[in-house]
Design a protein that fits this description.
Length: about 180
């Protein structure tokens, strides 16, 4: 690390793509994006034709390097990202971590202000009280409910059920057209 710093290389973030199963509980990724399999299955299959490849040795080496990076640069610059599942899901998880402009849901505990007199709630998103996921994915206008609310860019989006809210939360840019996407 010191040699890299000596050459003027700066790090914004160190990412360790981990082959873990199952997906962590706090994930908002839809279940259909995930493959339940033994860790290393996908990588071992891809490397089957490569002579002298040792998955366990590679994992051990990567873990050591990641640990050294954390000690040298600080834990706040390091993160682990689950890399099982579809390539699109991995891509979205990485972008959420490193791209400050990637569209994400807001922290609802910060956005809600219910104590003010006359407060009528956050403005509705482009779909009003209707579920954007059922509209975009299925072509149906289905009324959402406040219990399944997700907030993005200070606007409230309602969903028909928690499954749609989870799909939306994972990648809102699929359902919300923005100036950059």
């Amino acid at each position: 690390m010191e040699k890299l710093k000596a050459h003027g290389l700066q790090f914004d973030k160190i990412i360790n793509l981990r082959d873990m199963s199952p997906l962590p509980e706090e994930s908002d990724e839809p279940a259909e994006n995930m493959k339940e399999q033994e860790p290393g299955t996908e990588i071992k299959a891809r490397m089957a034709g490569v002579e002298f490849y040792d998955y366990d040795a590679e994992v051990e080496t990567a873990t050591k390097i990641y640990g050294l990076a954390g000690e040298s640069l600080g834990a706040e610059l390091c993160c682990e990202i689950h890399c099982n599942g579809a390539a699109e899901g991995v891509h979205i998880r990485v972008r959420k971590e490193i791209d400050p402009f990637f569209l994400k849901k807001d922290d609802s505990s910060v956005c809600k202000v219910t104590e003010l007199e006359g407060y009528k709630g956050l403005p509705k998103g482009d779909f009003g009280e209707y579920c954007p996921v059922t509209y975009v994915d299925d072509g149906w206008l289905v009324r959402g409910s406040a219990e399944n609310e997700v907030i993005v860019n200070g606007k409230s989006y309602w969903f028909a059920d928690p499954k749609e809210a989870k799909r939306f939360s994972f990648n809102p840019s699929v359902y919300i057209k923005t100036l950059n996407g």
